[in-house]
Amino acid sequence: MIGKNGLKVNKNIEETKTIVLVDSIDDFIKHPKISKNSEFEIITFDFKLHKLLQSKKITHKISDEFMTENINDIQELTRKFSYWYKEMKILDQIHYKNVNLGRLFYPEFHYFLVPFLKKLIEVYGICQKYQNCNYITSPKLFEFTKLFSNSVENLSLEKLQSENYLYDSLKIPVKIGNSTYSLRIPKILFKKFKNISEKFIKLFLNNKHTIPTKPSTLLVEFDTIRCKKFFEASNNLSINLVHYGRRRPTIWNKESFSIVKNSNSLLVDIDKIYDKNLKNSVYQGQLFAKENLNKLLQNHEFFENYFSFKEYSLWLILKPFFVDLITKRFSEAISEIEITKKLFNLYN
């Protein structure tokens, strides 16, 4: 049934209280009728929206008021969920050449879970306080609310944007005058810029891309400028130093270029080592990981029990994000493992 202001309301509970859960300014702006219905009780999950509602003198509550668990309990639940990869039942399906692939994206999953669980527990608290009420929610809160209530309407049927995880973008320091600012750019774009710059630098430092004939010391993700004195002293060493930076570029400005040029160190040339054999190893490894991932996700009972809060299983809500993240990171991890293995063979 359609309510007075055009918003859909469950006809069976039309006369009961209606709670509106909103977690973004965009949702509020797109549905201005929310604030015009005095029968609606608005609860915001977004601080900026809270300030906007305050400035407009619109009566509302903030989700923090409904937190049913203390901070230690939330941290413990987050920690438990983040350690899913330690469970013996699924270890065989997430190991690749003695590497636990699940462990590799622990920081990202933990980072994702903190706001995820906070919102979920706040929604739980709201539904406990306002039982037998009608709920209208932002898309991101819809699945949470549906877990605890049978009377939920989605504020928008628009498709949710894909989730941006912690390492999907990188923070780049940009110096303007005497001030330094942080700029976040997509990891894919960063890699493209990094590859182009390394090809360009290679034109001027081609002698630095040779593969040494004797054992070398691999310098992984070293900051060239911070380690300036170390590299200056390298000219007095009888060992080969080899820069290897997949995330951090070895050279990014005039100073770092000069340090590398005048030091007794070499640069890893990925183009030289990424031959047909390595490509095939990566391909076969990714196929192996994909097959194991499919087996892993067949453990429905394990995941439903493991990812649970009180008597509620969170697996169906969490699964799309979990699968998205694990698929991306497993594929990337296989590639990095095979490249590193090749490097150790070349420079050992």
Descriptive keywords:
alpha/beta; five-stranded parallel beta sheet; 348 residues; 14 helices; 47% helix; three-stranded parallel beta sheet
Q: Topology, pairings included?
A:
Blueprint: E1 18-22, H1 25-30, H2 33-36, E2 40-44, H3 47-55, E3 61-62, H4 71-82, E4 95-96, E5 99-100, H5 101-104, H6 106-129, E6 134-137, H7 139-148, E7 152-154, E8 169-176, E9 179-186, H8 187-202, E10 216-220, H9 228-233, E11 240-244, H10 254-261, E12 265-267, H11 270-273, H12 276-296, H13 300-306, E13 308-309, E14 312-313, H14 315-347
Parallel strand pairs: 1-2, 1-6, 2-3, 6-7, 10-11, 11-12
Antiparallel strand pairs: 4-5, 8-9, 13-14
Helix pairs in contact: 4-6, 6-7, 12-14
Write up what this structure looks like.
- With 348 residues, this protein is α/β, with parallel strands linked by helices.
- It has 14 helices and 14 strands.
- It has helices spanning 25-30, 33-36, 47-55, 71-82, 101-104, 106-129, 139-148, 187-202, 228-233, 254-261, 270-273, 276-296, 300-306, 315-347, and strands at 18-22, 40-44, 61-62, 95-96, 99-100, 134-137, 152-154, 169-176, 179-186, 216-220, 240-244, 265-267, 308-309, 312-313.
- α3 (47-55) links the parallel β2 (40-44) and β3.
- Residues 1-14 have low confidence and may be disordered.
Radius of gyration from the alpha-carbon trace, in angstroms: 26 Å
- Side by side, the strands of the main sheet go 3-2-1-6-7
Number of strands: 14
Shape: elongated
Distance between the termini: 72 Å
Question: Main sheet, how many strands, which sense, barrel?
Answer: 5 strands, parallel
Class computed from helices, strands and strand pairing: alpha/beta
Order of helices and strands: EHHEHEHEEHHEHEEEHEHEHEHHHEEH
Number of helices: 14
Low-confidence stretches: 1-14
Instruction: Name the helicity range.
Output: 40-55%
User: What is the average per-residue confidence, as pLDDT, rounded to a whole number?
Assistant: 86
Strand content: 15-25%
